[in-house]
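Many introductory courses stop at the sequence. We go one step further.
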Amino acid sequence: MPQVFKPVLKVRCAFTLIEILVVLAIIALLSALLFPAFSRAREGARQATCQTNLQQIYMATQQYFQDERRYPDSLVDLLPGGAKYDNGTPTGGTLPDSVNGYLKSGADGLLCPDDSLDNTVPHSSYGALTKSLAAPATPFVGTTPDPNADAGKYTWNYWGYDADGFAYPGPTEAAAGTPNGSTLLMNPTDSSNAPLAFDQRKNKLRSSLSNRFAPTSTIITHCVWHRLQTANDLIAPGQMNYGGDPQNARDIILRLDGSTKSVNTTNWKADATGNKWQTQTP
Protein backbone atom coordinates (compact mmCIF):
# COMPACT_ATOMS: atom_id res chain seq x y z
CA MET A 1 0.00 0.00 0.00
CA PRO A 2 1.55 3.24 -1.00
CA GLN A 3 2.36 5.73 1.84
CA VAL A 4 0.34 8.90 1.76
CA PHE A 5 2.14 12.07 2.74
CA LYS A 6 -0.01 14.79 4.32
CA PRO A 7 1.02 18.39 3.86
CA VAL A 8 2.36 20.07 7.00
CA LEU A 9 0.44 23.21 7.93
CA LYS A 10 2.60 26.06 9.08
CA VAL A 11 1.19 27.88 12.14
CA ARG A 12 2.02 31.53 12.37
CA CYS A 13 2.88 32.51 15.99
CA ALA A 14 3.64 36.22 15.65
CA PHE A 15 1.67 39.37 14.86
CA THR A 16 2.63 41.48 11.95
CA LEU A 17 3.82 45.02 12.52
CA ILE A 18 0.60 46.40 11.03
CA GLU A 19 -1.52 44.36 13.47
CA ILE A 20 0.52 45.55 16.45
CA LEU A 21 0.19 49.17 15.35
CA VAL A 22 -3.57 48.78 14.92
CA VAL A 23 -3.93 47.32 18.43
CA LEU A 24 -1.80 50.13 19.91
CA ALA A 25 -3.89 52.73 18.10
CA ILE A 26 -7.10 51.22 19.48
CA ILE A 27 -5.65 51.20 23.02
CA ALA A 28 -4.54 54.83 22.67
CA LEU A 29 -7.98 55.82 21.41
CA LEU A 30 -9.75 54.07 24.28
CA SER A 31 -7.37 55.66 26.77
CA ALA A 32 -8.01 59.10 25.35
CA LEU A 33 -11.74 58.51 25.72
CA LEU A 34 -11.75 56.85 29.14
CA PHE A 35 -9.08 58.71 31.15
CA PRO A 36 -10.86 62.10 31.01
CA ALA A 37 -14.06 60.34 32.05
CA PHE A 38 -12.27 58.74 35.01
CA SER A 39 -10.80 62.13 35.94
CA ARG A 40 -14.22 63.78 35.79
CA ALA A 41 -15.70 60.97 37.88
CA ARG A 42 -13.01 61.43 40.55
CA GLU A 43 -13.53 65.18 40.62
CA GLY A 44 -17.29 64.64 40.82
CA ALA A 45 -16.78 62.42 43.87
CA ARG A 46 -14.56 65.05 45.48
CA GLN A 47 -17.15 67.74 44.84
CA ALA A 48 -19.82 65.53 46.39
CA THR A 49 -17.66 65.15 49.52
CA CYS A 50 -17.10 68.91 49.58
CA GLN A 51 -20.85 69.54 49.34
CA THR A 52 -21.40 67.14 52.25
CA ASN A 53 -18.89 69.15 54.30
CA LEU A 54 -20.71 72.36 53.41
CA GLN A 55 -24.06 70.86 54.38
CA GLN A 56 -22.63 70.03 57.82
CA ILE A 57 -21.46 73.65 58.12
CA TYR A 58 -24.96 74.80 57.20
CA MET A 59 -26.62 72.65 59.87
CA ALA A 60 -24.07 73.73 62.48
CA THR A 61 -24.58 77.39 61.54
CA GLN A 62 -28.35 77.10 61.90
CA GLN A 63 -28.06 75.35 65.29
CA TYR A 64 -25.71 78.11 66.46
CA PHE A 65 -28.20 80.74 65.28
CA GLN A 66 -31.06 79.06 67.16
CA ASP A 67 -29.06 79.15 70.40
CA GLU A 68 -27.34 82.54 70.08
CA ARG A 69 -29.77 84.47 67.84
CA ARG A 70 -26.81 85.51 65.72
CA TYR A 71 -24.54 83.85 63.20
CA PRO A 72 -21.05 82.65 64.20
CA ASP A 73 -18.33 85.12 63.32
CA SER A 74 -15.80 82.35 62.77
CA LEU A 75 -15.71 78.65 61.99
CA VAL A 76 -13.99 78.23 65.36
CA ASP A 77 -17.38 78.88 67.01
CA LEU A 78 -18.69 75.70 65.41
CA LEU A 79 -15.89 73.34 66.46
CA PRO A 80 -16.25 70.91 69.40
CA GLY A 81 -13.90 70.73 72.38
CA GLY A 82 -10.53 69.18 71.63
CA ALA A 83 -10.56 70.25 67.98
CA LYS A 84 -7.34 71.69 66.59
CA TYR A 85 -7.47 75.14 65.03
CA ASP A 86 -5.17 77.82 63.69
CA ASN A 87 -4.76 80.42 66.45
CA GLY A 88 -2.42 82.56 64.39
CA THR A 89 0.72 80.50 65.00
CA PRO A 90 2.37 77.87 62.80
CA THR A 91 1.56 75.15 65.33
CA GLY A 92 -2.08 76.10 65.80
CA GLY A 93 -3.96 75.32 69.00
CA THR A 94 -6.53 73.04 70.61
CA LEU A 95 -9.94 74.15 71.88
CA PRO A 96 -10.71 73.42 75.56
CA ASP A 97 -12.71 70.27 76.23
CA SER A 98 -15.38 72.45 77.86
CA VAL A 99 -16.31 73.92 74.47
CA ASN A 100 -19.60 72.54 73.16
CA GLY A 101 -19.23 72.58 69.41
CA TYR A 102 -21.91 72.37 66.74
CA LEU A 103 -19.83 70.76 63.99
CA LYS A 104 -19.68 67.16 65.16
CA SER A 105 -17.20 66.13 62.47
CA GLY A 106 -14.74 68.60 63.97
CA ALA A 107 -11.93 70.17 61.98
CA ASP A 108 -11.62 67.03 59.83
CA GLY A 109 -14.88 67.98 58.12
CA LEU A 110 -13.48 71.37 57.12
CA LEU A 111 -11.01 70.09 54.54
CA CYS A 112 -12.03 69.80 50.89
CA PRO A 113 -10.58 66.69 49.16
CA ASP A 114 -9.04 69.02 46.54
CA ASP A 115 -7.33 71.18 49.21
CA SER A 116 -3.61 71.05 48.42
CA LEU A 117 -2.36 72.98 51.47
CA ASP A 118 -0.24 71.33 54.15
CA ASN A 119 -2.79 69.43 56.22
CA THR A 120 -0.37 69.09 59.14
CA VAL A 121 -1.13 72.73 60.00
CA PRO A 122 -4.72 73.20 61.27
CA HIS A 123 -6.72 75.12 58.72
CA SER A 124 -10.04 75.06 56.89
CA SER A 125 -10.92 74.98 53.22
CA TYR A 126 -13.98 77.11 53.93
CA GLY A 127 -12.73 79.92 56.19
CA ALA A 128 -9.97 80.82 58.63
CA LEU A 129 -9.91 79.01 61.98
CA THR A 130 -9.08 82.05 64.04
CA LYS A 131 -10.99 84.75 65.91
CA SER A 132 -8.34 87.38 65.23
CA LEU A 133 -8.34 87.25 61.45
CA ALA A 134 -5.71 89.56 60.02
CA ALA A 135 -5.92 90.93 56.52
CA PRO A 136 -5.32 87.93 54.23
CA ALA A 137 -2.02 87.55 52.44
CA THR A 138 -2.12 88.61 48.82
CA PRO A 139 -2.62 85.66 46.46
CA PHE A 140 -0.08 87.22 44.08
CA VAL A 141 3.66 87.80 44.28
CA GLY A 142 3.97 90.67 41.84
CA THR A 143 1.98 89.40 38.88
CA THR A 144 2.63 85.73 39.69
CA PRO A 145 0.01 83.79 41.68
CA ASP A 146 1.31 82.52 45.01
CA PRO A 147 0.44 78.81 45.31
CA ASN A 148 1.09 78.98 49.07
CA ALA A 149 -1.56 81.64 49.71
CA ASP A 150 -4.19 80.20 52.06
CA ALA A 151 -7.28 80.70 49.94
CA GLY A 152 -9.38 79.25 52.75
CA LYS A 153 -8.94 82.49 54.67
CA TYR A 154 -10.90 84.33 52.02
CA THR A 155 -14.11 82.35 51.97
CA TRP A 156 -16.04 82.55 55.27
CA ASN A 157 -18.59 85.35 54.96
CA TYR A 158 -19.24 87.31 58.16
CA TRP A 159 -18.70 90.91 57.04
CA GLY A 160 -19.41 90.24 53.37
CA TYR A 161 -17.21 89.96 50.28
CA ASP A 162 -15.13 92.43 48.38
CA ALA A 163 -15.23 92.82 44.60
CA ASP A 164 -12.83 89.92 44.01
CA GLY A 165 -14.76 87.47 46.15
CA PHE A 166 -12.50 87.67 49.22
CA ALA A 167 -14.20 87.83 52.62
CA TYR A 168 -13.61 91.08 54.50
CA PRO A 169 -11.41 90.29 57.53
CA GLY A 170 -13.19 92.80 59.78
CA PRO A 171 -15.69 95.66 60.07
CA THR A 172 -13.14 98.32 59.17
CA GLU A 173 -12.36 96.73 55.82
CA ALA A 174 -16.05 96.07 55.20
CA ALA A 175 -17.00 99.67 55.99
CA ALA A 176 -14.25 101.01 53.73
CA GLY A 177 -14.95 98.60 50.92
CA THR A 178 -18.73 98.68 50.78
CA PRO A 179 -20.55 101.36 48.76
CA ASN A 180 -23.06 103.86 50.17
CA GLY A 181 -20.99 104.21 53.37
CA SER A 182 -23.57 104.07 56.15
CA THR A 183 -22.61 102.80 59.58
CA LEU A 184 -22.38 99.04 59.76
CA LEU A 185 -25.70 97.35 60.55
CA MET A 186 -27.49 100.70 60.87
CA ASN A 187 -29.79 102.51 58.49
CA PRO A 188 -29.39 106.14 57.40
CA THR A 189 -30.80 108.86 59.65
CA ASP A 190 -33.48 111.40 58.78
CA SER A 191 -33.01 115.16 58.49
CA SER A 192 -32.90 115.56 62.29
CA ASN A 193 -30.19 112.87 62.57
CA ALA A 194 -32.65 110.45 64.15
CA PRO A 195 -32.14 106.82 63.11
CA LEU A 196 -34.74 105.50 60.73
CA ALA A 197 -36.62 102.26 61.38
CA PHE A 198 -34.51 99.20 60.70
CA ASP A 199 -34.99 97.81 57.22
CA GLN A 200 -32.77 94.90 56.22
CA ARG A 201 -33.36 95.69 52.55
CA LYS A 202 -31.58 99.05 52.98
CA ASN A 203 -28.78 97.85 55.23
CA LYS A 204 -25.53 97.99 53.34
CA LEU A 205 -24.32 94.65 54.74
CA ARG A 206 -27.66 92.95 54.49
CA SER A 207 -26.07 90.01 52.62
CA SER A 208 -23.51 89.21 55.30
CA LEU A 209 -23.58 87.02 58.39
CA SER A 210 -23.03 90.11 60.55
CA ASN A 211 -26.68 90.89 59.84
CA ARG A 212 -28.84 88.34 61.65
CA PHE A 213 -31.68 89.31 59.33
CA ALA A 214 -29.66 88.42 56.24
CA PRO A 215 -31.78 87.04 53.38
CA THR A 216 -31.66 83.34 52.60
CA SER A 217 -29.72 84.01 49.39
CA THR A 218 -26.73 85.18 51.49
CA ILE A 219 -23.59 83.16 50.89
CA ILE A 220 -22.27 81.54 54.07
CA THR A 221 -19.04 80.41 52.47
CA HIS A 222 -17.72 78.93 49.25
CA CYS A 223 -15.02 76.45 48.26
CA VAL A 224 -12.35 77.67 45.85
CA TRP A 225 -10.44 74.39 45.53
CA HIS A 226 -12.32 73.21 42.45
CA ARG A 227 -11.17 76.11 40.30
CA LEU A 228 -8.00 74.31 39.25
CA GLN A 229 -10.07 71.34 38.09
CA THR A 230 -12.76 73.36 36.31
CA ALA A 231 -10.87 76.31 34.85
CA ASN A 232 -8.53 76.28 31.88
CA ASP A 233 -5.45 78.20 32.98
CA LEU A 234 -5.48 78.81 36.73
CA ILE A 235 -2.30 78.14 38.67
CA ALA A 236 -3.53 78.57 42.25
CA PRO A 237 -6.95 78.97 43.89
CA GLY A 238 -6.07 82.55 44.83
CA GLN A 239 -5.80 83.44 41.15
CA MET A 240 -9.31 84.76 40.65
CA ASN A 241 -9.13 86.33 37.17
CA TYR A 242 -12.75 87.42 37.48
CA GLY A 243 -14.22 90.00 35.17
CA GLY A 244 -15.13 88.20 31.98
CA ASP A 245 -12.24 85.85 31.24
CA PRO A 246 -13.73 82.76 29.55
CA GLN A 247 -12.28 80.25 32.02
CA ASN A 248 -15.49 78.81 33.46
CA ALA A 249 -13.93 78.72 36.93
CA ARG A 250 -16.46 77.15 39.28
CA ASP A 251 -16.76 77.37 43.07
CA ILE A 252 -19.16 75.43 45.27
CA ILE A 253 -21.42 77.97 46.98
CA LEU A 254 -23.21 77.45 50.32
CA ARG A 255 -26.16 79.78 50.99
CA LEU A 256 -28.29 80.46 54.05
CA ASP A 257 -31.14 78.47 52.53
CA GLY A 258 -28.93 75.37 52.79
CA SER A 259 -28.35 74.98 49.06
CA THR A 260 -24.92 73.89 47.81
CA LYS A 261 -24.30 74.44 44.14
CA SER A 262 -21.38 74.54 41.74
CA VAL A 263 -21.47 78.05 40.25
CA ASN A 264 -19.49 79.71 37.49
CA THR A 265 -17.95 82.64 39.37
CA THR A 266 -15.90 83.99 36.47
CA ASN A 267 -18.15 87.02 36.00
CA TRP A 268 -18.87 87.80 39.65
CA LYS A 269 -16.38 90.63 39.93
CA ALA A 270 -17.66 94.22 39.90
CA ASP A 271 -18.50 95.53 36.47
CA ALA A 272 -20.27 98.50 34.91
CA THR A 273 -23.66 97.34 36.25
CA GLY A 274 -22.57 97.16 39.88
CA ASN A 275 -20.70 95.05 42.39
CA LYS A 276 -22.00 91.50 41.94
CA TRP A 277 -19.98 89.93 44.75
CA GLN A 278 -21.25 92.38 47.34
CA THR A 279 -24.85 91.91 46.25
CA GLN A 280 -24.15 88.18 45.86
CA THR A 281 -26.19 87.74 42.73
CA PRO A 282 -24.72 85.58 39.94
